[in-house]
Write a structure and sequence with these properties.
Length: 287
């Protein structure tokens, strides 16, 4: 082998060894996952159990479906405190009966919400305090399913509480003593009812029938009648129907003044109606 060829071979071997030594100093590591951690704060989404075809103009919360809830609540809070109980210490028996039925209708719903909340809390506490009691370690899918179930229950409870707080603010009027701001409105209501009633006294009852009944009338803030309910019948369908018809003929009543409208959406007036043997209609406070 010539000198030139040997010289080239030595340079080639030396260069190869140098490159291999350089490659041995190079290290590859996995990238730090924390650098790719998402910094999105997330979205607050609730689950609703109904939907509307029309999308609301201004949504208070995000949900899986469009839902225009309406209501009269002043704030669009997710959670709300149920309304305080009405003071019935001065109410008559007719008013107390109306309030009692209203509370009985609400009690099953509130009990159901309380039970669901308790079950959700117990399920969550059991997973946290007794992990050893489970026969096997829960998988990620199991935890996700359980968390989703709890979230659905709590979302429904929150919706029920919001609906509860958004109910119309009612004032029950049936006792002898009433707040001054309601007294004038009720007096105007009485005068109109009796005037219309005497002008439209039932012909079938003139000189023949007389009696009394207990009637509750729900009036909205705009003066329109929302509901009429006979709390105690007169025992005669002609007189009962005549009382309801007189209310319908008298409607609408005056709108609520500002002093009432500021904290009241609905007034429930409970009165004893008397059809006398003189063919006159009178309304009186409940005893």
């Amino acid at each position: 082998m010539g000198k030139t060829a040997r010289y080239a071979l030595e340079w080639g071997v030396g260069l190869s060894l140098g490159l291999h030594a350089l490659l041995l100093t190079v290290h590859f590591v996995m990238p730090d996952a924390s650098h790719f951690k998402l910094r999105d704060r997330g979205l607050d989404v609730v689950l609703v159990n109904s939907r509307h075809a029309q999308r609301p103009d201004k949504a208070d919360l995000l949900a899986q479906s469009n839902l225009d809830g309406g209501g009269t609540g002043e704030k669009g809070d997710k959670l709300a405190t149920p309304l305080p109980p009405q003071d019935s210490s001065q109410a008559g028996t007719g008013l107390v009966e109306a309030q009692r039925r209203s509370e009985q209708a609400e009690t099953p719903q509130m009990q159901a919400m309380t039970t669901a909340r308790s079950k959700a809390s117990i399920a969550s506490d059991t997973r946290q305090t007794n992990p050893v009691d489970t026969p096997r370690q829960a998988s990620g899918y199991d935890l996700l399913d359980s968390s989703a179930a709890v979230a659905r229950i709590e979302a429904q409870i929150d919706k029920d509480l919001v609906d509860y707080a958004a109910r119309p603010r009612k004032k029950f009027i049936g006792a002898r003593t009433e707040e001054y701001r309601f007294a004038q409105y009720v007096e105007d209501w009485r005068q109109k009812i009796e005037r219309v009633g005497n002008l439209n006294y039932p012909p079938a009852a003139r000189g023949k029938l007389y009696g009394s009944l207990l009637l509750s009338i729900s009036i909205r803030a705009d003066g329109n009648v929302k509901h009429v309910e006979i709390q105690r019948s007169s025992g005669n369908k002609i007189l009962d129907d005549a009382a309801v018809r007189i209310v319908q003929l008298s409607s609408p009543f005056p709108s609520f003044p500002d002093a009432i409208r500021k904290d009241t959406d609905e007034i429930v007036i409970t009165r004893t109606w008397k059809f006398t043997n003189a063919d006159v209609v009178r309304t009186e406070n409940t005893e």
